[in-house]
Amino acid sequence: MIRVYRALMLALAGFFVLAPVAAAQVSADTRRAKAELISERFSVAPGETVFIALKLTMDPGWHIYWRNAGDAGLPPQLLLRETASIPEDALGKMLWPLPKLLPIVAGEIMDYGYDDEAVFALPLTVPADAAGEVRIDAIADYLICESVCIPETADVSLVLALGDPVENVPSGDLIGAWIAKVPAPFPGETRLSDSAMPWTLSLSLAGGFPEGATIRFFPYEHEISHPAEQPQRVGPGGASLGLTPDRAGQVGAALEGIIRVDAPGAEPAGYVIRAERGDAFAGTTDNAFVPMGLSKEAGLGWQGLLSLAGLALIGGLILNLMPCVLPVLSMKALGMVSAAASGHAGELRAHGLWYTAGVLVSFAALALIILAVREATGFATLGFQLQHAPTVAVLVLIMFAVGLWLMGFLELGRSITNTGATLAGQGGAAGAFFTGVLAAVVGAPCVGPFLGAALGAVMSQPAPAVVAVFLAIGFGMALPFLVLSFVPGLHRLLPKPGKWMETLKQAFAFPMFLTAAWLLSVLADLAGAGAVGWTLAGATALGFAVWIGRDAGLVRRGVAIVALVAAFALPAVQANVPAGRAGGEPAMPAYAEAAWSPAQVDALLAEGRPVFVDFTASWCASCQVNKLTTLSTKRVMTAFEDADVAFLVADFTQKDPAIAEELKRRGRAGVPMYLWYPAGGREPQILPELLTQELVIGLVEGG
Amino acid sequence: MQITRRHLTLAAGMAAAVALTAGALIASTAQAAPAPDKLAPAFTGVTSSGATITLADFAGKTVVLEWTNDGCPFVKKHYAMPPANMQTLQKNAAAEGIVWISVISSAAGEQGHADAARANELTASRGAAPAHVLLDEAGALGKLYGAKTTPHIFIITPDGQLVYDGAIDSKASAKAEDIEGATNYVTAALADLKAGNPVSTPVTKAYGCAVKYK
């Protein structure tokens, strides 16, 4: 009994004695990483330089940081302790292997670092007077994070014998493998262009980067926004990245950091770069490369895409009512009436299908053009086609030609103009197709008002999504006619054809001429009076071609064709003046107080004044409608004046990166955009794209 | 022509639907983070005492926003007693009539998340003295300001200018012994404002744990 008691007492005593030791061991074991000092040598000679390394082996799911941790976190440190036998300067700088992206919160917080295992090599220069042994006692001080962060310190030490060199092969191999992962000097040239947003980091490399390579820039400091995507362009001479500056992002003499190149089938490679200011190198900005999604959340899911496509479909339907499409539609309607009157349901159906095909092909083409522009510039806005003077000049002539045709001066194939009963056959199909194309071409600039927000959202999506949404718009636009041609009996509701059709058709010529006049004013803003003169001369040549080509005869036909070519080619060439505001300063309406700039907005808000910003362009029809019906009306102007509203104009007639950036920032694909900052307000309200006097006055008086 | 009229009515209805949908899309578009020396974005939030506050309530007063997460070692460093760095800053601010607002943006289930009771308990147990503790478990305020780390400090002038965005001090570490000897950017900025000078260091790199957003 006594023995048992003694044994129990001993056990208890043992427990109390051992408990602190056990506790200490537990605390060491609960570290999230194992820290070790390793060396490529067992023994070293005085005066020589060898590599040692801090090796951190992390628990699964935990990570540590690169020399620049990104938005949060801290890089690891190795601190010598006093018991070390070497002075501080015997250890050189830590070498940082190529890090990876650690997206902590998609689009918000991005860190740079390592998971699993990381080996940081340091050169050790053995003191010439070293004696006995080299003892390196140090503290590994690192922050390790999973979803939570824990600062850990670990005592590490390494003893190297003095004497003839003896290799530690496994450690040496490991250190060597990790030194190979340290970014090397970039074998090409780099430049940074920070005059426009986003910044462009141009990487010139003879022979270009490997096919399909993804490139990411990791800065040493915090000049750029870490979580922002870096849209990549590639060319035969290298690549370039779009960098979003940080809020206070400013670059001193140069932007320094590394790039990580991930190419298919190759180990990731890292290069140190130092980019001084300069224009992008030729051959580095040719094509967009669709980056592999950094964050899954950035992509639109099926649901998002479907709802956008649905919205686009409805928008396409409504497009039929826009003033710019209506005249073209009238042609379509007249064709339908005729086909219906012919009594053949089959013809009517073919007509509807061809028309739909014309619209869809055009919208697909528009989507492809927009994608091409996006690839070339990194950002596309709607209505960009009206920022290109030659395109505008050609559109003027097309409108004029359509007007002539509506008037009956010009015959585009018998069956279209012949509104009688002979709509069947090839001519009818081609005519229906052509009408669809024309409706889409003329309607595209009007897409903005209803679909600005939806298109803004889709504009940054992968190409198939963009094409899908544009096709949905086109389908929506064609839908009424498709329904009309397929639902039995519906076409009977159409009025009977008669002479009124010819009269109506001719009457619709005038909206076309007005459209041409409006486009001419756009052209004047873009390329100046000279281009307008040439375009009018082109219109005259067009008229001449029509007149002389009326009668048969080889010579006459030949002259007509020459005149026709000249009619389009000369204005287009003449309008292609160098970029810049050829037409002088943008036209400012009298009620505008100043041109828009972010600084101007801030200054006015600081004065405590309410601010109204009109993002407009002379080629934007709905902008002009809003100006006419709302902004320039006496009621609205008086309301603005009474409330001391500062009216700013951002004129997007010419491409302007600052305006493009602001539109993008607000998620819009193009103009119009109206921002309302109430007095003392800090963030603007974005107004609908079609304004009413009541809406604007209500805001001004309410604010 | 009846058809056309019918279509017009139909389309007008659809136009309204599109305008509404587009409006919703626009409203949900996230605004970009503010830049220093710009107007601070307006916000409305609910505090741990159940009050609803907006930035406009404090017009005429300097406002300090402090992102916090009591589980984060970098926050622990500045709340450690001694030296009670954060508590001292808060008390000094209160004495100067400055509105100090601690913001908790940790999502439910994440480190540092606090309901009103826990937030008040934390204030009491740490001897903290913020004017308000804002509960931002959805992370909306944090993302509006672009708060990246805990701690992360923003200073707003009486007329609503954002004049400081960044770290609490110059030594990026989780060790309390580093507080002494570090330059406290918040103290410096508030002193600049008090003296009527522009803030000499308006932006620094905030350091700490990532904000535990949803």
What report would you give on this structure?
The complex is a heterodimer of chains A (703) and B (214). Chain A is α+β, with helices and mostly antiparallel strands and 703 residues long. Chain A folds into 5 domains: 1-30; 34-179, Immunoglobulin-like; 184-291; 302-575, no CATH class; 594-702, Glutaredoxin, CATH 3.40.30. Chain A is built from 18 helices and 25 strands. In chain A, the strands form 5 sheets. In chain A, strands 12, 13, 14, 15, 16, 17, 18, 19 and 20 form a 9-stranded mixed β-sheet that branches. In chain A, a hairpin with a 7-residue loop joins strand 24 (673-677) and strand 25. In chain A, helix 4 runs antiparallel to helix 5 and helix 6 (389-407) crosses helix 12 (509-548). The radius of gyration of chain A is 36 Å and the shape is elongated. Residues 1-27, 290-299, 413-426 and 578-587 of chain A have low confidence and may be disordered. Chain B is globular. Chain B has a 6-stranded mixed β-sheet with strand order 1-9-8-4-5-6. In chain B, strands 2-3 form a two-stranded antiparallel ribbon. Chain B has 2 domains: 1-30; 34-210, 3-Layer(aba) Sandwich (Glutaredoxin), CATH 3.40.30.10. Chain B has helices at residues 2-28, 73-79, 85-95, 116-126, 140-145, 185-194; strands at residues 38-39, 44-46, 52-54, 63-67, 99-104, 132-135, 149-150, 152-156, 161-166, 209-210. The chains are: A alpha+beta (703), B alpha+beta (214). At the A-B interface, strand 10, helix 3, helix 9 and helix 14 of A face helix 1, strand 1 and strand 10 of B.
Arrangement of strands in the largest sheet of chain B: 1-9-8-4-5-6
Strand content range of chain B = 15-25%
Architecture per CATH nomenclature, i.e. the level-2 architecture of the largest domain in chain B: 3-Layer(aba) Sandwich
What low-confidence regions of chain B span 5 or more consecutive residues with pLDDT below 50?
Answer: 1-34
Rg from alpha-carbon coordinates of chain B: 21 Å
The structure class of chain B reads: alpha+beta
CATH superfamily of the largest domain in chain B: Glutaredoxin
Query: How many angstroms separate the termini of chain B?
Result: 56 Å
Q: Outline of chain B, from the CA principal axes?
A: globular
- How many angstroms separate the termini of chain A? 93 Å
What is the H-and-E element order of chain B?
Answer: HEEEEHHEHEHEEEHE
